[in-house]
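Figure-free illustration: sequence to structure, shown twice.
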Amino acid sequence: MSKDYVSVQYDTSIRPITTYPEKLAKRLCDLHGIRPGAKLLEVGAGRPDVLKGFKNQHLEVFGCDISKTSKEQCEAEEIPFKLVDFVKNRLPYKDNTFDVVYSKSVIEHMPDVLNFVTECKRVLKPGGTFLALTPDWNANYRTFFDDFTHVRPMTRRSMQLVLGVAGFIDIDSYRFRQLPITWKSSLINSMCACIAPFVPANTRKPFFRWSRELMLVGTAKKPS
């Protein structure tokens, strides 16, 4: 019998729970002007660490995923959850429902990226924010397919293009280093950028790994 992807990929013996998701949620709220009281949906909630971080920022949070493990973990945190295969089905929410639709490490699993972002746009309120994090192909191409479920590499240009075709406005994409120390120090961020080309692709040392493995952030607004 096959196992649940989330239960394997996010096994706490391999990926222990840390303070990083809480810091990431706060950082994204600060960067993108997400205010307390906003209604946020995480598409592909997985292990809901970041979703709990958004909840602690006083957002009204919701999750959906294909994973029953994700369902159990969200419900344990009293986070409203819907089970859905969003490769095959529409998101199980009405049009114009959320202020923010967020995903992390999901879009690279989608065979039809345009359909995915269009569905996210549908459930956003007019003026709402789409926010997606995915491995940056240029920084992660050597290890991208270590996850056999990855099917869609993304670059800054491809992210901007698909959001434009989907009808979003105020589109931006940028690279994001997952080292909180670099968020407040441009000097350390520059140092990481300098050493990144020399870091082995499969290093497990956190500082060096996250110096090299950049995330790509795509963000846009639904027209009012």
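We now fold a second protein in the same way, so the two outputs can be compared directly.
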Amino acid sequence: MVSVNTSSAAISAVNTLRGIDQRFISSSKRIETGYRVADSGDDASIFSVAQGVRAEVKTAASIQSSLSQAQNTTQVALAGLRQLYDLTNDIRANIILLADGATAESARATIKSDTQALLRQIDSVRNTSTYNSFAQLSATAQARSFIADSAGNSITVGIFDGQTELDALNAAVDNIDTSASALVALDANDAFQRQVNLSTAELASTAKSIAEKSNFVGSLVDALSKGLGALVDTDIADALAVRQSAIVQRGLSVASLDFINTANRRIVNILR
């Protein structure tokens, strides 16, 4: 039937054109944003799931940052402890010379002065082994806790607690005037070195635990990010193909609509 009031062919062509335009707009949005689901208007259920995954990614990233801080703090402390151990070895060598009766008297004052200088270096190392303004080896050091998981559990980086032994070592070195007093200082140095070794072992164990947790959280962030991408990311090749197809279909649809309108104009001319 041909009607002057209603053109079924034109309505159908317009609806087809509207659908093609929608596909073109949708595919263009996917290409421009990089997301297949950029907002709730694209797919409400998937967008809701994606928002939950994004929250998990942010949480895991924050935990990873906290563990990174813990790792750096521990590594700085361990570097300081290694330096302390080397210094105690140098001090031990000097004390042995002071305990040796064959050491010339003219050299004793120099050796003792050098030993006292090494002790001052110990204080310097303890005070400068800092990360983010915190010194884990200083006399006023405090243990620090870092968030380790999404449940709020934490991991604690301990301190070097050898002040008593260091004070005893300083006093013993200052009192060296005979071989016997040098041997007392030697025992004090060994006691301090044992504390250094004990703290090194404890911090090394903590560092290993932190590294394991950090590796796990890093893997978790990667897995969550991949899952999020699978949910919402655009397949660029597919989106480009859809848009190109929509461009071609739009041209054909416009041509079809123009053909229908031309036919209708002929009918109107005949009626005139």
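Summary for the second example: The chain has two domains: 8-34+234-271, 45-231.
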